[in-house]
Recover the amino acids of this structure.
């Protein structure tokens, strides 16, 4: 049991420290962004499982030989009127901590999801009122604003929104490419992919690793949308659109130059796409599966 | 419900293009094809008032309505909200919106030239 707890703790430390620090630097991520995204999701989930699972296992260890058995005993005792289930102060505290932490993480996620849906609904209703349909594509809306921008509102009633500045800047092919990119985000439901990372990076600001994961995920999500858009448009055209947009983006004087270089990376990637690799894809997906299976099996199979 | 939203839009269009405040009857007259009753327009106007999109001039006997902000001001607010990176970017997923440093902008201009060159080469080739 101690071995399991130690192993899980080491796993958690690795997944919360060096892995999120090193993973964004991996060059191969650009070749298989979707699979890398899955790996990121597995890293996050596995870290949570390892930390909370280890804490819970340690907490109920005195009650039985297996984790499930211990929980059954605990629940039985609590139901019978023993509030601490026969656990001493250290173990009960640990259990409370584990439960509270889990509840907090899930609560933050739920709250964030709810807030996002509401904000999006409000925004969409305003955009529907204020925006005009795009001539080239009646499903998309145009906001009268000189600064070029394009974004999408994901969810049940999705929208693609551009500014008039953007429409003026792009030629017809480029505009089509931009629309394809935004629609790719909607089709891939990137709002759901990004949500947990956004929610937890806000909830755990003192853990730099979560912020780093979020940045990495944001970048990968753009790459996936770029790739998917290129099924409907030419890579060079999308590269033109992106480069044109970036070159025209005058940085706000006060917020001088906080660019991350991500746009340039995307343009280069579109112009010189990395070679896809099925082997890499399978390796990443297997790693993701392993990250989830290992702590689960360890927790359920181990002898406390 | 969808029809009401569409009506709100039409009413706002009238208010935005009007040089000054309008009465409900002005709006009815401005949308002849819809053959609206003044009461319908008043309902829509009160909804828009509740949403803070329209304000009422109370000094005249016939209530006159005007938009609380121009279309452009609303657009600017929406843009800021969508692209606000300080927030968790809740509402929108913005991929053509990122802040770009001057150095990066220069390199992007160079990349653009390269990309355009490739495009025309592909077209001519």
């Amino acid at each position: 049991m101690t071995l399991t707890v130690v192993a899980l703790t080491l796993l958690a430390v690795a997944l919360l420290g060096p892995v999120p620090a090193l993973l964004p630097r991996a060059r191969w991520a650009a070749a298989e962004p979707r699979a890398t995204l899955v790996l990121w999701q597995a890293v996050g989930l596995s870290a949570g499982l390892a930390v909370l699972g280890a804490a819970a296992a340690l907490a109920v260890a005195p009650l039985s030989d297996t984790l499930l058995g211990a929980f059954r005993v605990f629940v039985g005792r609590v139901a019978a009127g023993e509030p601490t289930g026969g656990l001493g102060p250290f173990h009960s505290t640990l259990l409370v901590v584990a439960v509270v932490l889990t509840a907090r993480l899930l609560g933050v996620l739920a709250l964030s999801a709810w807030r996002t849906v509401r904000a999006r609904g409000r925004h969409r209703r305003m955009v529907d009122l204020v925006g005009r349909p795009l001539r080239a594509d009646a499903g998309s809306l145009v906001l009268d604003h000189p600064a070029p921008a394009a974004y999408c509102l994901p969810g049940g009633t999705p929208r693609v929104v551009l500014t008039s500045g953007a429409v003026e800047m792009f030629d017809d092919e480029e505009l089509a490419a931009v629309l394809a990119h935004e629609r790719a985000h909607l089709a891939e439901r990137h709002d759901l992919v990004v949500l947990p990372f956004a929610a937890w990076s806000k909830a755990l600001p003192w853990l730099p690793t979560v912020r780093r994961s979020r940045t990495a995920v944001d970048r990968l999500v753009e790459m996936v949308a770029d790739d998917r858009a290129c099924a409907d448009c030419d890579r060079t055209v999308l590269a033109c659109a992106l480069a044109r947009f970036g070159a025209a983006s005058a940085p706000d004087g006060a917020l001088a130059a906080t660019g991350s270089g991500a746009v340039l990376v995307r343009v280069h990637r579109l112009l010189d796409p990395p070679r896809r690799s099925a082997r890499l894809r399978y390796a990443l997906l297997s790693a993701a599966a392993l990250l989830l299976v290992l702590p689960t099996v360890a927790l359920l199979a181990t002898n406390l | 419900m969808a029809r009401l939203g569409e009506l709100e839009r039409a009413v706002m269009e009238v208010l935005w293009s009007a040089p000054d405040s309008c009465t409900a009857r002005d709006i009815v007259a401005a949308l002849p094809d819809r053959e609206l009753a003044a009461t319908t327009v008043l309902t829509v106007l009160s909804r828009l008032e509740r949403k803070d999109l329209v304000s009422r001039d109370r000094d005249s006997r016939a209530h006159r309505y005007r938009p609380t902000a121009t279309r452009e001001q609303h657009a600017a607010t929406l843009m800021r909200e969508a692209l606000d990176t300080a927030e968790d970017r809740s509402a929108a997923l913005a991929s053509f919106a990122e802040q770009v440093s001057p150095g990066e902008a220069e390199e992007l201009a160079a990349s653009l030239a390269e990309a355009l060159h490739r495009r025309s080469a592909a077209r001519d080739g």
Remarks:
- Chain B touches chain A at residues 5, 8-9, 12, 53, 71-72, 74-76, 78-79, 81-83, 88-109, 111-112, 114-116, 118-119, 122 (CB under 8 Å).
- The first helix of chain B runs from residue 2 to 17.
- The radius of gyration of chain B is 23 Å.
- The longest strand of chain B covers residues 54-57.
